[in-house]
Design goal:
With about 180 residues, the protein is mainly beta. It is about 10% helix and about 50% strand. Strand 2 and strand 3 form a beta hairpin. About 5% of the residues have low confidence.
Length: about 180
Amino acid sequence: MKRRRAIGTMLLTIVLSMFAIGMGADTPVKANPDPLEAFRLDGSWRMVVTATNPAGLQPFDSLMTFNVGGGLVETRRLYLVDLAPNTLLETPGAGNWRRVGFTNTFDITFIFLLQGAPGNPVLNGAPFGTDKIRWKATLNPRTGELKGPWMSTLTDNNGNQLFSASGILTGKRIPIEPL
């Protein structure tokens, strides 16, 4: 009986000592609140926008920052020349995102404000309308690529649809490069 009690005391001492050593370690132990950590969207991304409809639009680069909680900021070169004969300027985009269920897919919507570019014979700096982008993005945790189909709808200030386009957005997270 004394021997069993001594072994139990010794085991309890070992367990408590290991616990105390673990609690004193420099590395904090923290719970991971996101079970889909490998599928995190927040951060900044360099994207390539490719239009498949209408044909003939050139691919271009875009920078996107996804904020924790669902906010999005997007920017690209702001001078639009593909809407000949009138050129336009657009603001950086702002919008929101949300995860689709417990998957690595996201619904994303963002908009730009449009105005006539300098020299536009009709608008020359005047407000024009908006460009709304809807995107179904999937994050591949093996490649780190974010990709999916998008659709753009340009409307004038009265809400009339003037132009639409669709295609594929593809990109990679902008890596941190220590100095």
